[in-house]
Amino acid sequence: MIVTTASGAPGHPGVYLAQPRTRTVLRPERLDIAGFVGVALRGPVDEPVRIERWSEFERLFGGLERTPGGPLRMLPYAVSTFFRQGGRAAYVLRVAPHGDEGPTSLDATARFRLTLPSGQEASLIAADEGLWGNRLVVRLHYRVDQRLEAEVRDDGVLVLPPGANAPAGSLLRLRHPDAVVDPAMRWVASVDARLPRGSPQPVRLDEAAALVAGTRAKVDVVTGALQIDDLSRPDLGGEYLGGLGLRPDHPRWIHTVLMEGRPARTDGDAAARRHLLAPVDDWSDLDFAPPPELSPIDAELIGKGGDRSPLIDGSAFFDPGFVDFHTIDEDSGPDDPDPHVGVDRMARVREIGLLCVPDLTWDGYAPVPEPPTHHPLKPLPCRCRSCAADEPQTDFHTVVSVGGGLDARNADDLDKLAARQERVVELARACGRFVALLDVPDQLSVAQIAEWRSRFDTSYAAAYHPWLAVADPVDGRAIPLPPSAYAAGIIAERESRLGLSWGPANELAAGAVRAEAVVTDAAHDNLHALGINVYRAERDGFRLSAARTLSTDPDYRQLSVRRLMTMLRLTLQRQCADLAFEPNTAELRERLRQMVTSLLRDLARQGAFAGRTEDDSFFVRCGDDLNPPESQALGRLIAEIGVAPAVPLEYILVRIARDPDGSLTVVRDGR
Asked: If we measure between CA atoms, which residue out of 60, 74, 390, 59 comes closest to residue 237?
């Protein structure tokens, strides 16, 4: 007999109706998250950070500012283009030159000093290296968060009223009711936490105060507040950390709060957890007690940050030395004995399905010296309207020179750039989880592009041409961008809206105002045959005309097929891992077959397969014929899965025939 109670909970001993076991459902793994590796003004070095909107990138890595005399950083423009195109999420990694110190140089990071009322010094450091840290303004305030009246007991314990917030480590400013005795600063040594919530709160002080038992003393709860203004980005509002404890035993000890935002080499939402400053060394021996008037303390800049981007070359993008690609997997990361850097670090992020390196042409440069300071006794040049020259009128037809990088028109530079791209492609092929989006080097002829193309033969890479320019929001001049940035947004938006089975092509490049190379019909014929995805100029903009990989294998020529097969493999690897160590029974094999069949059936409804029926589209075999007793005895479960991916339409043939009666017949044949 099966019985249940009214509440559904077991009552007396007996047999009860158990909840049915939840059936595992396979969900397609996301491949629309892109990884961007490049040069930025600020931000953590060699730490992949997940962002979901352009404003997060601005706050963490800086905006579209340009360094005078330096090359144009492609990373911010590429990420901006990705989100403008419709991308939803991306990981961003900032590269920097590497030396004996590691990925971050303390010499290039701004440092500050707080001189406490006790005469001791507390050192702080900017969250990451760069010139931006020199424009931080730091001030430590002392605030009175609560004003209370407390009862003084005979044993010297203060009884705070219900609702008071004064945990151990809090600083109290005590005043006698008749204000005859000067205020006294005392620390809360302990709090009786056993009392129920809402009851009076007894606290014991670290030392006795000159208070009369049985009276009611006035109590101010004093906390710290760290105000950090970032003058390099005043529009972002800086940072304010309030309610900070001034002793280590306080739950919001200032050192602990700042360390919670300390940049760490972990994957995640670092944009939400990091602070603009971090403490240096241990502050447990420092006395942060304020003066009686609670006057604030201003921090002093004792070490300026610097810009190390002129030192960045190809070595900053990859792990140094030999790399065994057979050891690459998605589980290796920041806990490795030798932490990875650049593209190799980004490749370990399991969520990315696309990889872009917009600053791969970066090759270091000689920085332009700062202009000399004007002599105070020398008259300034005239700036009146009659003497000043007219400002030039600029528009998007004026192109900003990228400068400072590898020039593909130079044979040696082209070899260096191709070698870097080969390294990226080899990494993508070894990982097998994402597709590397390559930029065809700018200013090359079709014959040179064909020679460059011959270096690659893999379905884990796709190439795009030509470079497309966007209008600079500051002065309207055209900024040439690598075409992979547009492609990443197109692929991500297309997958989110239509699914993997739809080829990521026939979409406009959002924001593109001009192309850096004219692609004729004859050139397009040759480039398409080479597997180069070309943007063609149309009335409404520049449209991506293909979605091919760089593979010579006809089965994996289409990017949608490559990504569909990758998604299926990752889905089975990641979501079926919990089936390991279960009893290898017929029930388990049948459950696996049903799970996979359900996944493929949903994909078939979305048009992912070429067959008219399920039998023509896919099959799943996991029976006893594939799992004989001798195979089961070895702990194996074998399943065979076959699919027939749908190939995107690329050509439409139109035949026009003239009938004898003079009528015209138009026959369209799409293939």
From this structure: 59
C-alpha–C-alpha distance, residues 454 and 592, integer Å? 42
Residue 381: name the closest of 390, 391, 389 by CA: 389
Residue type present at position 396? F
Radius of gyration of the chain (CA): 33
Residue-level pLDDT at 533: 97
- Give residue-wise pLDDT tens across range 78-106: 999 999 999 999 999 999 997 654 455 67
Where does residue 43 fall: left (phi above 0), alpha (psi -120 to 50 degrees), or beta otherwise? left
- Write the DSSP string, 570-617: HHHHHHSGGGTTS---HHHHHHHHHHHHHHHHHHHHTT-BS-SSHHHH
Q: Check residues 651 and 125 and name the one with the higher pLDDT.
A: 125
Contacts of 317 (CB under 8 A, 6+ apart): 37, 95, 341, 342, 343, 357, 360, 420
> Cβ(368)–Cβ(70) under 8 Å?
yes
Buried b (16+ CB within 10 A) or exposed e, 128-143: bbbbbbeebebebbbb
Highest mean pLDDT among 334-343, 469-478, 485-494, 496-505: 485-494
Max intra-chain CA distance, the chain? 120
Q: What is the token pair recorded at 301?
A: 């800049």
CB 54 within 8 A of CB 64: no
What is the Cα–Cα distance from 599 to 639, expressed in whole angstroms?
15
CA-CA-CA-CA torsion sign (455, 458, 460, 462): positive
In this model, does residue 2 exceed pLDDT 50?
A: no
Query: Residue 666 pairs with which residues in a beta bridge?
Result: 656
Q: Which domains does the chain have, with CATH numbers?
A: 34-101+309-365+394-556 (3.40.50.11780), 107-266+274-303 (no CATH), 582-671 (no CATH)
Span 342-355, pLDDT tens digits:
999 999 999 999 99
Q: How many residues does the chain have?
A: 671
Tokens of 577: 């891992």
Contacts of 482 (CB under 8 A, 6+ apart): 74, 78, 356, 358, 439, 464, 467
